[in-house]
Amino acid sequence: MKTHLLDSLSRFRCGRRLRGRTVRSAGWRYMALLVAGVAWSATAQEAFDLQRYFDWKIAICYHPMYMLVDEDRGEPVLSERIPPWGAATAEQYMERVKRNLASLEKDPALKLNYEWAATSLEDVAVRFPDVMERMQAAHRRGQLEFVDGVYALSQPMVHGSESGWRQFEYGTEIYRRLFGTPVKVYTSQECQLYPQLPQVLRHFGFEYMVMPSFPWAVRITRGPFEILGHEHGNYLRKGSEFIQAEAPDGTGIPTYFATNVRDKTARESCIERDRWSPPPIWIDFPDLAEFHNPQAGATPVLLGQALAERVKVAPPRGAGEVHSYYTYNAEGVWAEAHARASKEAEEMAVQTGNLLALARLAGQPMDKQAALDALWRKILKYQDHDATWIEVTDLRRKAIAKFGEAVAEARALMQEVAGRLTKPAADTVTVFNGLPHPRTALVEWTNGIPEGVAAQKVAGRTLGFCELPALGLRSFKQGTAQATDSVERPLPATLKLKHYAVEFTPEGLVRKLTTAAGEVVVDGRERLGGELRAVLGREWADNRKFTARFLDGDVCAVVERTGAFGLPGKTRGIPVVERYCFFKQQPLIKVELAFDFNGDAVGMFHIDETKLNVYWPTAGGAILHDMPFGYEEVGDDESILAPNWVHCGGLVYVNRGTTRHWVRDGVLANTLAWGGKDWSNRIHASYWAKLNAKHNYDLNLHGRQTITYEVIPFGAFDGPRVVRAVEDLMAPVFACPGAGQEFSKDLGDPSLAVTGLFEKGGEVWARGYQIPGSPSKQFRDWEIFNVPLHSLKGQR
Questions:
Q1: pLDDT band at residue 478, thresholds of 50, 70 and 90?
Q2: How far apart are CA 461 and CA 711, in angstroms?
Q3: In the chain, which end has fewer C-beta atoms inside a 10 angstrom radius, N or C?
Q4: Residue 4 pLDDT exceeds 70
Q5: How far is CA 533 from the centre of its chain?
């Protein structure tokens, strides 16, 4: 018994290393005597086993960076591609995987968990079939489990609903094909959380969620929920480590809060607190490493099995809503060129699927599902978080190019649909609408102006609006009229249009914006509408003194502002051209900002307000923003990740890939760009400071970057109307020469937000969510639907 006890105590290594010696503290001696006293007070036949008493388990989860290692060839070389952390090539990286598997093969008691992107596993199966066979064998033996389960490891809270859904759809199918069983645990090293996630997880068969290793957030919606704390931080008591993560519709999934395994005193802390110690399942989630157990007193486990056992002992008592403030996609790197290109590609892919559905409904089905899937897989792969990681250059550039390819491929598929549904007619143009409701669409006319359509030349483009039927097409005869020019006139102090009125400063920024009903939605006090601000060096710069031109036409009034953004006499001025289109017959303001960067440093990486931001001072009030499959209300001065829009004080701000926002005292801000050489992952600042000094990564801003956004003077919030107004703006319009028979399919119910249409089993299906508040709703409030289109009521 004595030997067994001493073995237990030797595993309790709470001493500290000092020049190669282990120094035992007085506290350790006290702990040892305490445990010894408990042990010898037991019967002579029973020894006290510290590990058995606390029942420590550890899920070792490795997070391979396969795509980053395989595809990035930027200079200086990424630290993730330098041993011992990373590897120079995929071949070298797979040697580490082989050593992981060899550890499992050598010791049947060992267990390992992997978070692989499914697309990377497909590549491994083709290029390294021997490694895949060994993974499959380890999985069959019950030594290897996979978590996460998505196609690529994106951060879906900043992407559209369809991207997030298809990440699971394609990823889970690959896992089933390669390993014969579905992934049951959703967890990740990076943060991938948004409130509707529990619904999506349940649809794809997940049984548990675990809060990620990187920053996460949860709003407790009902209790009890117990938090303990002391001078070193807060933690959850053993027995309170599960909550029910609930989506807005009430769908829940048991969700586990892991113990901080990186804390070197984790075991000591558990022993010190005994019954009020942290939870017993520890999770280590580094990048792909050589197999090792960082907590020798804990037994390696498969995470899914351990959770299934633990939830029986500590079932969820409280509930909460999960979300995130954290993502690489919204730090302003390269003025969000990756996110902006991704957004365009995603919108084009959604509309391509909708037009293929239109063709089937019109009696002209096309066998293009494989091509559409390939298009989506390209987009999803390069939405992976590694392509947006701060120091990445080459892979980011490649991803942006891939998004451009996807846009071109989407246009080609839409052209095939048009070819099936129209006939050649040189004097006719046909415009397609992929949304299942009628819309007034802004169109850039390139082949003449249709009869009865007003059009105006704006900066080399011809803009106009046309009325389109729901999920259909409309043909227009080409007219003889020409687009009107934009004529320069003096800048008015006030501009009154059909749906709103604008009051300008003498320099052309917006001082006040009022709806036709007289509701003030922008009121410039400390900030002005359209104001740009950033810290250059250590001083604030803004665009208030730019020069303004006013141009007028039939479709819109245009304010063009030009200037050098900088500190006169202190910094290089960044050339900027701003263009505001104030449309005369629609409640819409479209803004385009063109920056000519030349190695410029802008802002401080960790302080969003110092970066290049655009401001709109709203009238204040409730703050709402969209998220995948819905929208939510947030508080003042919260960090907002909005894939598409933010509403506050009657104003709707629509971004085109710049997803980081906040609202403070009614002033809405959107982060556009950051450039510099000092940065981190917002977790390990000192580590990254050393690497930055060593590698000297150049993350300053370079080249022409054009950022667009829209502002809608909307008025009081109305969920269905806001969602549709933004859809009408975001959904691409496809126009081509030719004449077609007019066709439409109107969903009819404005409380159903359709995120995408697709073909399945010879039918058209619809996916989306139920907007709350409708007296004749077809689903629960916020319920995500994925059903045959014909099953939805109210169609016409």
A1: confident
A2: 20
A3: C
A4: no
A5: 25
pLDDT at position 794, please?
79
In DSSP notation, 691-714 reads HHHHH---B-EEEEEEEEEEEEE-
Q: In this structure, are residues 132 and 124 in contact, taking their beta carbons and an 8 Å threshold?
A: yes
Given the structure tokens 């490694």, which residue do they identify? 131
Helix (H, G, I), strand (E, B) or coil at 171: helix
DSSP result, 596-630: EEEEE-BSBTTBGGGSEEEEEEB----EEEEETTE
Of the candidates 84, 98, 95, 90, which has an alpha carbon nearest to the alpha carbon of residue 72? 90
Distance CA 658, CA 642 (A): 9
Using the structure block, give the residue that is written with the tokens 């002391």: 230
d(Cα 360, Cα 471) in Å, to the nearest integer?
A: 11
In sequence order, which residues have a C-beta less than 8 Å from that of residue 551 and are 6 or more positions away?
458, 486, 487, 488, 489, 557, 558, 559, 560
Euclidean distance between CA atoms 118 and 124, whole angstroms: 10
pTM: 0.93
Q: Is the pLDDT of residue 17 over 50?
A: no
Which one-letter amino acid corresponds to residue 138? A
Tell me whether the omega of the peptide bond preceding residue 76 falls within 30 degrees of 0, making it cis: yes
Q: At what angle do helices 394-421 and 337-361 cross, to 10 degrees?
A: 20
Residue with tokens 């937000």: 753
Tell me the DSSP string of 416-437. HHHHHHEE--TTEEEEEE-SSS
Could you tell me the pLDDT band of residue 263, with boundaries at 50, 70 and 90?
low
**pLDDT tens track for 337-346:** 999 999 999 9
Number of H helices and E strands in the chain, helices first, is 16, 47
Q: Cis link prior to 224 (omega < 30° from 0)? A: yes
Axis-axis angle for helices 90-106, 129-141 (nearest 10): 30
Q: Are 154 and 385 in contact (CB under 8 A)?
A: yes
* Averaged confidence pLDDT in the chain: 91
Residues with Cβ within 8 Å of residue 720, at least 6 apart in sequence? 750, 751, 753, 771, 773, 774
pLDDT of 2 higher than 60: no
Least Cα distance to 288 among 99, 535, 133, 475 occurs for 99
With CA atoms as reference, report the closest residue to 262 among 9, 533, 58.
58
Residue 41 carries which side chain, given as an amino acid letter? Answer: S
Tokens of 490: 């003096």
Give residue 76's pLDDT: 87
d(CA 408, CA 430): 19
Query: Residue 259: its pLDDT value, please?
Result: 73
Which own/partner pairs from 346-349 qualify as long-range (CB within 8 Å, at least 24 positions apart)? Answer: 346/159, 346/160, 346/162, 346/163, 346/379, 347/160, 347/730, 347/731, 347/732, 348/406, 348/407, 348/410, 348/411, 348/732, 349/162, 349/375, 349/376, 349/379, 349/406, 349/410
Closest C-alpha to 691, from 78, 59, 31 = 78
pLDDT in tens, 440-473: 999 999 878 888 899 999 999 999 999 999 999 9
Q: Which two tokens stand for residue 192?
A: 């991938």
**Residue 694 scores a pLDDT above 90:** no
| C-alpha to C-alpha distance for 297 and 1, rounded to whole angstroms | 19
Q: Which of 288, 281, 270, 280 is nearest to 303 (CA)?
A: 281
**Model confidence pLDDT, tens digit, residues 516-535:** 999 999 999 899 999 999 99
Closest CA to 31 of 52, 16, 15: 15
Residue 2: name the closest of 25, 24, 29, 35 by CA. Answer: 35
Decide if 749 contacts 723 (C-beta within 8 A).
no
- Local confidence band at 623 (pLDDT 50, 70, 90 cut-offs): very high
User: 30-52: per-residue pLDDT in tens?
Assistant: 344 444 444 444 455 789 988 88
